[in-house]
């Protein structure tokens, strides 16, 4: 359930005056950083539940990227699925945006594979079913993710999949192709490398195929030292087994 935005801006207390706080959440650590945003681990002061808070400095964003952020929020508000990270609350000031989301305690499946190696076929099948279920749910609501990759597949306390990061997400209509080049090159479909228009769901389906290979084999099917070499291998369908 998405909570309504508060009427007053969130309180972000400076260090030295007690715990750093955003609204009703005490900040406990940093989960990740980007150019214009930082993701913090936080705990609700009353329920003591853990959450992740994405803190975005709107003053550093141009109009195009600001529009992407608001579209990401719009998409996440529409989604309620057991294998998609939930958006709990949105708080906003003149210069900052705070997205309070579900916290996936076991991190990225990318890191899990790097530490433990490839999954068994049975475990890969179970996790891929969870991914497929979530993506089918999105497509049923005319939403495409467009950046499905191991780094955006998180694991919760029970090692279940949680799809995250809808920063490249968009709405689509059947018969109206999309054109934006986005996503991660090793997971990108041939039509993206060729600069063609594409149907949104088909892009996600290709990326899911790459994800399945990564889960089972513990490595990327298409790789290369440079982007042109990677592009050539994808277009020719040359992958390692």
CATH homologous superfamily caption of the largest domain? Transferase(Phosphotransferase) domain 1
Helix content: 25-40%
Number of strands: 10
Q: Helices and strands, in N-to-C order?
A: EEEEHEEHHEEEEHHH
Give start-end ranges of low-pLDDT stretches: 1-18
What topology does this entry show?
Elements: E1 21-22, E2 25-33, E3 37-44, E4 50-57, H1 63-78, E5 87-92, E6 96-102, H2 109-116, H3 121-140, E7 143-144, E8 153-155, E9 161-163, E10 170-171, H4 190-193, H5 200-217, H6 227-236
Antiparallel strand pairs: 1-2, 2-3, 3-4, 4-6, 5-6, 7-10, 8-9
Keywords:
alpha+beta; Phosphorylase Kinase, domain 1; Transferase(Phosphotransferase), domain 1; two-stranded antiparallel ribbon; globular
Structure description:
The chain is α+β, with helices and mostly antiparallel strands. It has two domains: 82 residues, Phosphorylase Kinase, domain 1; 130 residues, Transferase(Phosphotransferase), domain 1, CATH 1.10.510. Helix content is 32%, strand content 21%. It is built from six helices and ten strands; from the N terminus they run ββββαββααββββααα. It has a six-stranded antiparallel beta sheet with strand order 1-2-3-4-6-5, covered by helices on one side. A two-stranded antiparallel ribbon has the order 7-10. Strands 8-9 form a two-stranded antiparallel ribbon. Helix 3 runs antiparallel to helix 5. The longest helix is centred in the middle third of the chain and has 20 residues. The radius of gyration is 19 Å and the shape is globular.
């Amino acid at each position: 359930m998405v909570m309504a935005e508060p009427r007053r801006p969130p309180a972000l207390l400076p260090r030295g005056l007690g715990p750093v706080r955003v609204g009703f959440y005490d900040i406990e650590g940093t989960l990740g950083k980007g150019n214009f945003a930082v993701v913090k681990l936080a705990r609700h002061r009353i329920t003591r539940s853990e959450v992740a808070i994405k803190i975005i400095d709107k003053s550093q964003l141009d109009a195009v990227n600001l529009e992407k952020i608001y579209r990401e929020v719009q998409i996440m508000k529409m989604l309620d699925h057991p294998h998609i990270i939930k958006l709990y609350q949105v708080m906003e000031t003149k210069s900052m945006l705070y997205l309070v989301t579900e916290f996936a305690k076991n991190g990225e499946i990318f890191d899990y594979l790097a530490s433990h190696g490839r999954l068994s076929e049975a475990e890969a099948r179970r996790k891929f079913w969870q991914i497929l279920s979530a993506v089918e749910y999105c497509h049923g609501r005319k939403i495409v993710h467009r950046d499905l990759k191991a780094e955006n597949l998180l694991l919760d306390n029970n090692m279940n999949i949680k799809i995250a990061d809808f920063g490249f997400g968009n709405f689509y209509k059947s018969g109206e192709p999309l054109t934006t080049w986005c996503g991660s090159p090793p997971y990108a479909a041939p039509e993206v490398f060729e600069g063609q228009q594409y149907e949104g769901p088909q892009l996600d389906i290709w990326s899911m195929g790459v994800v399945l290979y990564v889960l089972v084999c513990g490595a990327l099917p298409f790789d290369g030292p440079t982007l042109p070499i990677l592009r050539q291998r994808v277009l020719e369908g040359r992958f390692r087994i």
